[in-house]
Write a structure and sequence with these properties.
The protein has 265 residues and is of the alpha/beta class. The protein is built from 8 helices and 11 strands. The strands form 2 sheets. Strands 1-11-10-4-9-8-7 form a 7-stranded mixed beta sheet, sandwiched between helices. Helix 6 links the parallel strand 8 and strand 9.
């Protein structure tokens, strides 16, 4: 296990430099969500964000997506400032954000259709993704006929369809029951190993973060910063009962508990 408070200086895929974010609530209160966040995420890295509720994890994810903008500081990808959403970043939300009038196949190929990509190559890509996420035989099914886990598989495949460089995931398994979540985690590891895309994954679950990520970025209490980076140098699939896993889990939980207590003061 490696625990670090230092920033990797090598050329990153994603670079967050002294980012702060404040906003005003409906009743006029100023909230300083992110104080001074700095992190670098490498090409092909699976990064997990974890921290107390309300510490700005999802806010930073949305800044990487281009949906939000920093109050100060910069977010860049491949050395270029992120200022708007682009197809080079795919996103999967916690809610099952599917088009109810489209089939599984239609939802997955939606982004390709918007880009005017209707050809043999795009048809083959959609077929490959349907097989990859385990939905072969459900191509013509509509979202309301699918379980929650199956709907998230569709959402993941749709985000992958136009081949983004970075996958952004905002608690995508948070609404699932424990059994479905564990199976989808294992399946997503297999999907990720098929393409090795850069992933930024927001979660409240320490176990989920450690099962998935190469590095876990622990956010401090608000106004947040990156308190620690936990490197998870364990082979996948990971055994949650292994001593090495439990060692990292214990250290991460202890540090997270400190920040949760600070948020409640």
């Amino acid at each position: 296990m490696t625990i670090s408070t230092q920033i990797d200086s090598s050329a990153p895929k994603l670079d967050v430099i002294h980012v702060a974010k404040s906003f005003r609530t409906a009743d006029g209160e100023m909230v300083h969500a992110i104080g001074d966040a700095e992190l670098k995420i490498a090409e092909g890295e699976f990064a997990a964000f974890i921290g107390p509720s309300g510490c700005g994890k999802s806010t930073l994810l949305y800044m990487i997506a281009g949906f939000e903008h920093p109050s100060s500081g910069t977010v860049s990808m491949n050395g270029r400032t992120v200022d708007r959403p682009m197809p080079d970043r795919g996103i999967v939300f916690q809610e099952y954000v599917l088009f109810p009038w489209l089939t599984v196949e239609g939802n997955i190929r939606f982004g390709l259709d918007v880009q005017g990509r209707r050809d043999a190559a795009s048809d083959e890509r959609v077929r490959h993704l349907i097989s990859l996420v385990g939905l072969k035989g459900f191509e013509k099914a509509f979202p309301h006929t699918l379980s929650g886990g199956m709907q998230q598989r569709v959402a993941i495949a749709r985000a992958l369809a136009y081949d983004p460089e970075v996958m952004l995931m905002d608690e995508p398994f948070g609404a699932l029951d424990a059994q479905t979540k564990r199976r989808l985690i294992n399946d997503f590891i297999r999907i990720w190993e098929d393409n090795r895309k850069t992933v930024v994954f927001v979660t409240h679950s320490v176990e989920e973060a450690l099962l998935l990520a190469d590095k876990v970025y622990l956010f401090s209490a608000r106004p947040s910063r990156i308190k620690q980076v936990f490197e998870v140098n364990l082979p996948r699939p990971r055994d949650i009962t292994a001593p090495e896993f439990l060692e990292i889990e214990t250290a991460l939980l202890a540090s997270l508990d400190e920040e949760v207590a600070r948020m409640m003061e």
